[in-house]
Amino acid sequence: MHAEWILNLLANCPDLTRKQLERTRDLMDKHAPDALVTGYEDLIAGLTLPDQNDRHVLAAAIPGKASVIVTNNRKDFPDAELEKYDIEAQTPDEFIVHLLDLFPSAVLQAAEDHRTSLLNPPRTVDEYLASLQLQGLTNTVAALRALYP
Predict the structure, then answer these.
(1) Residues 70, 147: Cα–Cα separation, whole Å
(2) Which residues contact 63 (CB under 8 A, 6 or more apart)?
């Protein structure tokens, strides 16, 4: 599954390099070794989604025991199909807001850690929140604004 997100980011973010994304992939694998799902390929053919090319996402979510698929393509993951597997689709904004409801201090700390890791250029809280807003995280930004000291 790494290959897909790497290709999409390379196509949509010309400022990123394959080397940077491969480093990110390696860090993800190192720090979340149980997050990579394998052995889902046999499930793909039996799944029905509006976009056949998205079936691998649901196929991996099933043995991975995911409760949520985070996507901006909600239409490609209909509730009726996902409910069969006790999975729901959420946009990134919905997902982060739900995490904020459950773990406000942890999410705020993660956001602050991310903000302070951005060195080129460094960002103030307002600049950081504005960048999240540009990415469509409207509700997340509103919730974070209420939490930031």
Answers:
(1) 23
(2) 37, 39, 40, 43
